[in-house]
Amino acid sequence: MNSLDNSIGFRVISSDGYVGTVEEIVYGAENSPSALVIATRLAKRPFVLVGVEEVLGCFEHFGSLILSPSWRSSAVEMPVAASMVA
Question: Of 31, 61, 67, 78, whose CB count within 10 A is highest?
């Protein structure tokens, strides 16, 4: 089991500071996490979709994960949370 499988509700941070919390995990074809929906609490972009390749570390003990400094360049803005489960 990937440590991201249990990351719903985790605090998300990057080199810029607090990003938000993990709202949903998106699974790929091989039933492994491929992206995360992050609730940012920002009016302009309340949710963003970030690929797991942008995750530098997931720390279950602390309930947090760290994104790479370049995560914004590949993030997809979402106006509302949408279930990505097929």
Answer: 67
